[in-house]
Here is the input.
Amino acid sequence: MSQEQVSPEQRAQYRAEHARIGTRRSLLGLANEKKAHWAVALSGGGIRSATFCLGVLQSLARAKAPGADDDKDKPRNRLIAQFDYLSTVSGGGYLGSFFGSLFLPDRLRKTDEAPVASPPEVQAADTAYKVLDYEPPGRIHTSIDYRTSPPGEAPLAWLRENGRYLTPGGSGDIFYVLALSLRNLLALHVVIGLPLLFTFAAAVLLQAYISSSVICSPVAALLPMSVVQLLCGSLWWVPGLLTVVAVIPLMAAFWMVYFQKNQDERVHLFNWSTVLSFAAGLMFFVLAFAPWGMDGDLRAILVGLGVVSWLGIAYAVWIGLSLKHKRDRDEAMARNDCVRTYRVLVTRYLSQALIAVLVASFYALLPWLTEWIYNSEQRGPLISSTALLPVLIAVVRGLSAFSDDKDMPSWLGRLPMSVIAGAAGVTIFMLVAVLWGLLVQFVRYQGLENDALTRLWVLVPVTAILAFGTGRFIGFLNQSSLQSFYSSRLARAYLGASNGRRFDGATRKIRKQRMSVAEALPGDDVAIETYYGTTTCAPVHLINVTMNLTVDPAEQLVQRDRKGKPLCLAPSGQPGLASVSYILDGDPRQRGTQQRWIASEIYQPLGLAHWVATSGAAFSTGLGRATSLGTSLAFGLTNVRLGSWWPANFLEDDEKTGGTRVWRDKGWATTFPTQTYLFYELTAHFHGLRRDFQYLSDGGHFENTATYELIREGRNVELIVMCDCGADPTYKFDDLANLIRLARIDQALEIRQDMDVLGDPVLGPYFGLPENFAAPGPGDSLRCAMLFNVSNQKGQRTARILLLKPNVVAGLPVDVINYASEHPTFPNESTANQFFDEAQFESYRQLGLQTGQRLFGDGKSGSGVADALWAYLAR
Here is the structure.
């Protein structure tokens, strides 16, 4: 996006960010006339990325800023202080939130305890830099009084100790997670199942009522037994009737309107097609009831053909008149009163009719199938086949771990994941539906036969009331997922590392209680308004998530590919609840505070941990561009749901009058909101701002390098140090390619590799081409970086991207080389591995540290590479 295209709202947002940067630079004693900024981008990749990025940030904290003196006690002399922006996505957000929270005054250490009289913001910044400068990260010991130890000892040891942040307590935590998962899974199926139970009961009641009513007696006398069984013994006649009165006539209606010149001419209902169709229908009726007579089967066929012919005309007339009515009512709709629009509408109604037939067939099949199972001798074996259900759930949960990875097993990579997941999802759904259907049959047949209708009449309203009651708790959407567990564990593991309350115990007993990551402690999480509303010396932190969007008539072509929009959280420069700016696809938005469902947890303020966890919700029903019906159905039914529903409450210009909000949910969505949104989630229907709640997931589902927002020209970011830590075992640079593509399409920016740096005698050995990483040669043992230039349509360079790529290079410590030899996929082990042991944590941290020190120096002695790098970038 060029500077001329920046909207007033965007300019205001950038001014707020730059004002915050100006404040931090003034507090740190940095040159404040600098208009171009530096940024760090921490990519997705789970705890693998977080740990590698920790090492990189440590190297930045130890390295000297260009032209600085050797006094590291002055924050301005550290290289890390020169970076004004921090952008994170997914796993990079784990570490980014820890780093950003260190700058909050009085969080890790009380500022009034500092020996130097300086502003609390500066004291907190000095503490933050010293935390990263501490080496080596040790282990947590309750015998140590961390109040008097160096500020970095406890936080870094805490991060190392909690590499297994999901199950830090070992087997005890595994059972805790199992209990939580089982509870939420069963609750989810109860909420989903109650509407199924109600509709099954209603269908069985209708079937039982028809079969026992007086209607079937004359029918049995007139029709063959097979037809009687179809009409009276099951509901198969319903989809059949829908096919005759809707599907086939709509197919015929498509051909009843045609154009003579082009498709944009108006619809003419009186034409040869409608005339011939009317005449054909009349002929069929005449032949059916001719005096010479027809046998029953032939007469029924002729009557059916006549009905189809005339219904086709009726549909054509109805759709044509509706277009004419819209044209007469709204001049803007006049151009849509044409053959082209007519054909689109007919086809759309036909698709809806097919869906209705499919649903009717489902409700005809289940009562018939469950009745046969319940009354047949094969009931036991068939019911026992539902033992496949937990097996299928376990398989889908296992496969979900690969949904966000590029390093899938070779055998699995050759299979269409969405098709496999879809088949598993349909199977699971049918098994669950059969179980609910069998419960209805149990109620029907447990007792006297003449009381069956009474029991069903009681079951229908009871299940309706239960479904309505459970459907009103909209907060169930997020509480039943794994989001709350995930965010709470992230809060304790990463934000807990900056929570001074965990380390200020005066006695060993108190320290033992507070240093248990399995227990929540006040202060672990940080309110997002506090995080962005407090004046600190931290870089401006951009948190990136994806708003899933698969249903948007205005952008069907684009959303078919992306299936989501980027949502970025940033400081707005305003106080209180308005301190957070929600930037949707580059457009800053304001949120309202009105609620539709009172006292629902879904409306409660969200903390920093929740947003970081949402930014890292890699495995879920909404996967951005990778979303499919199959994966959503399978992951939803097995409760692999890390994303979260969120009421954006964005206020449009036409909705600000009077401070009221226009609610978009209507009908079923207001009566049964919980089941409605679960249905949307299971069927991959994410409407974005066209509904009251939006589904948010991993920011990497849109862009995984965390660089997309930084390259916007209005932010004036001159240099971006990007850690590209996504799983990339074959070094195809998929995430980089996606960034280049998005930058070109969305922002009219070109990202091209800087080739000149490859020929630099000092920097050349450390920089490479993609093929140097994919198939390293004998001279590629030091390559760990790439340099890119970002330019606009005028050919002006707007930014540079210094890409750091995790790569096993020469000169690493022996323990890291040993770990790499024992783990061939290092440093690209699966993102699904969120349980880092001590060796794994230290290997990734050391790799990030060594990579950063090779380029930026260690701050202890002069670095020719660092000097050459700054000189090259300054050209």
User: Anything to note?
Assistant: The CA atoms of residues 594 and 660 lie 8 Å apart. The longest strand covers residues 540-548.
